[in-house]
Design brief:
By secondary structure, the protein is an all-alpha fold. The protein has one domain (15-66). It is built from three helices and no strands.
Length: 67
């Protein structure tokens, strides 16, 4: 599992910085990698950005949990 730290009192802390770290951790997770592999086998669409993939993964995961 990826790890990163951002001191919450740091003047450089921002939502963008937090999102970048979270996105990187999600993209490196085994769940994301499995989801992406299944997605790649099913679709022949052009490869979206990591940002788009993580958004889709999170949306689908939350929809599944809500069901």
């Amino acid at each position: 599992m990826a790890s990163f730290s951002i001191p919450n009192q740091s003047p450089q802390f921002s939502e963008q910085l937090a999102w970048e770290g979270l996105k990187r951790a999600i993209a490196e997770s085994s769940g994301f990698k499995s989801w992406k592999q299944e997605r790649d086998e099913v679709t022949m669409l052009p490869e979206p950005t990591v940002d788009q993939l993580v958004h889709t993964y999170l949306r689908e995961t939350l929809e599944t949990l809500a069901y």
